[in-house]
Amino acid sequence: MDSIAKTTAGLLELPTLVADPESTHVGFIIHMTYDKVTVLTNDQWKHRCGGVPQNSFLVAASFDPANFETTPEEDRTVVLLRAIGPKSLPQDNDTLKSIIEKYQRATQVQATDQHDGFERITLSRLQYSGMECHILGSFQSDAVGRLTMGSDVEDFFAVARLRVYKPTPKVLERIVNFIAPDRVAKAEETAKLLLGSMPQPIPIGNVRYTSSNAVQRANKADVPVRIQPLDFLARRTAVYGMTRTGKSNTVKTMVASVATVAKKARVKIGQIIFDIKGEYANANGKDDGSSLAEALGGDVVRYRALQKTGFRDLRDNFYQSLTSGLMTLQYLLANDPANSGSDIGTLIALSLDEPTKEKFPDQRAFEGAQKRHAKQVAIYKAILYKAGLTPTAADNKVTFDIGKGVYQQMHNHSHVAGTSCDRSCSNADQRADHAKAILGDPSTGITLDEAVDLLIKIRNVNKDSAIASSTKGKNWVNETERGLLNLLFGEADTGAKIRSAKVIGNAIQIWHSPTGSDDVPRDVYNFLKQGQIVIIDLSVGPESTRKSKAEAIANYMLNQALTTMADEKEPPLVMMYVEEAHNLIGSKAEIDSTWPRIAKEGAAMNIGLVYCTQEPSSIHANIMANTENFFVTHLNNDDEIKTISKFYDFGDFAAVIKKATDVGFSRIKTLSSSFVVPTQILQFKPDMVKAEYDAAGKKPEEIKPPTNGAAGA
Questions:
Q1: Whole-number pLDDT of residue 295
Q2: Strand pairing of 25-32 and 128-141?
Q3: Spatial CA neighbour of 376 closest among 261, 512, 289, 482
Q4: 294-331 b/e (C-beta count within 10 Å ≥ 16 → b)
Q5: CATH among 3.40.50.620, 1.25.40.340, 3.40.50.300, 2.40.110.10 for 202-315+519-698
Q6: Residues 411, 107: Cα–Cα separation, whole Å
Q7: Which pLDDT score is estimated for 102?
Q8: I want to staple 271 with a disulfide (CB 3.0 to 4.6 A). Which of 134, 532, 575, 709 is the partner?
Q9: According to the model, what pLDDT value does residue 559 have?
Q10: Higher per-residue confidence, 270 vs 75
């Protein structure tokens, strides 16, 4: 009985797509292929149904919806069309001839009546025209009575018998938000794993066909367009458009929507925005003068490379941040072609990772590696100090070991200041103690100023005569340490001067802060794991340093996700938003570098990427080919439009994408949808977003009705 009811309901749902056929009739299909149709239409029919704007959705059917039960099985189909433009008819030449002859006989400029002097029969004939439409798919009922859709038509006819109708607002809402049952079932399985339950679709905007939009305004037909949040989790999303055409508004709406869905589902979804212009982290003249932080409250964490109330310090404390800070310095030095010397190369290749038992299973080797690590850390910090980086009192100390053998070799050396050992230094131990008394003992801790002095003396002694290690055949100062000591002293082995202090100081002064973290990428990742929204304000500082900091954070996220998967655990859900993406995942980017890897492989690691750019053609081809969701506003360049026209049915919108500069007027294709939907994106309203976000964490009985019309994102 239930199956019969479902089947009946499904069969009744299909004819509802042809609502009010007498008043919505647009014309007849007179020619059809698998891809497109030609429609015979009439000015009076178009006027009666409220007009047919370019790119508007139409439906075609051969059945009478009032007598659907008698319709043959092969005719139980509704074809979805998109109106593209006029199409010539065989009689168009005769029509044009009649119009020309009429105006050649005209004796005055203004029309004499509402028919402009045409007699009724001629006028009726002139009102007919052809219209070309592209086929987007076909609706049918499946075996259990559900409405389903295919992205094509199975057959076409020389005389199609198909009538064409303009969907009513209610029908249009059903069409633009339709998701096929098989996709719904798959999404429900994924949602159960990721969110516990299937989230509700989110309003993103209203259907909009044209820039002028006069027909829709006249009909007051605001048809909501909704997107499925699940489409963006662990997926790639492109937001294309010129500056000031609504990209940031789209992203803000997306961030708020995902945050609200996560809060309702009690699921942690971290979101990180690399904010190139500071428009997400700070209040500005757009979006009601409010920022995301003000709309989403305490769940937003902001970073900036300057001390500012409400922001965490994006800068590293380089004395503490031996991983992130060193990576930033290395990135800056490696991308400056002037830094080509071998000693600078030593610093660029340096690793200060602490030795592990796994790498050094032998206890003696492990202890030796620990001592060498401490020595290299001391040299690195001394280089930072000489470069002018201010340490805190707690950071102004280094500790490392110098063995007796080293002190003995340095004894009485010309570079060791102090009184020479007299006859009381009769043995090696006494000479070592004498040298230690003069040079100091770093094993108990010395200041950075003292460390600079000591290490320079060690460098000069070693340059004159290599200091031997206690390990036979090895030097106590290895090749890495020799290069670092040359940088500290400011002179190469050849005697050539190295402006290392100035070079290193200029590179990282802006990115060092005594109050900074010892590991910003680690802190950011921990916030994301907790489901918080992190905004990295990159509007301050040179472009090269901003890029290095962003890449360091992204690289840490990538490595942590890979490590988690290697441990056979599920990485946290993270959404990543990147502005000016052509600078990071451009067409010439190495596909195995950080950003392209995230774009290409991030989905497998639960990292969803939203990338924004005004240059689609500059994005790496592999990444564009694997992008599931697209938001396209105004593009002013034929080459850029040609690039996006290669995907899905965006080619239908090439002309309007170039002409229409309206803010927020977007063409949307999501994973769940089978076709592009032209949409006016809702304006980001902080008060409304805040009201819904606050309500998302409450039980239904705790929610108070919103005031001042605040409802929905």
A1: 85
A2: unpaired
A3: 482
A4: bbbeebbbbbbbeeeeebbbbbbbbbbbbbbbbbbbbb
A5: 3.40.50.300
A6: 117
A7: 67
A8: 575
A9: 93
A10: 270
- Mean pLDDT to the nearest integer, 310-333: 86
DSSP label of 34:
S
Tell me which residue of 269, 251, 262, 252 sits closest to 199, measured CA to CA: 262
CA-CA distance, 226 to 164, in Å (whole number)?
A: 26
Q: Nearest-CA neighbor of 316 among 335, 331, 334, 336?
A: 331
User: Cα 311 from chain centroid?
Assistant: 22
Residue 672 backbone dihedrals phi, psi, to 5 degrees: -75, -25
Look-up: residue for tokens 């891809």? 35
Q: Where are the domains of the chain?
A: 2-176, 202-315+519-698, 324-402+441-511
Span 522-550, average pLDDT: 86
- d(Cα 291, Cα 270) in Å, to the nearest integer? 18
Query: Which tokens belong to 95?
Result: 């029509």
pTM score of the predicted model: 0.80
Pure H helices in 540-685: 543-566, 594-601, 621-625, 638-645, 654-659
CB contact set of 203 (below 8 Å; sequence gap of 6+):
224, 225, 226, 682, 712, 713
CB environment 488-526: b (16+ within 10 A), e (fewer):
bbebbeeeeebebbebbbebbeebbbbebbbbbbbbbbe
CB 390 within 8 A of CB 381: no
State the Cα–Cα distance between residues 332 and 339, nearest whole angstrom.
Answer: 10
Among 578, 657, 647, 530, residue whose Cα is nearest residue 251: 578
Q: Give me the chain's average pLDDT, please.
A: 85
Q: Which residue has the tokens 């991983």?
A: 323
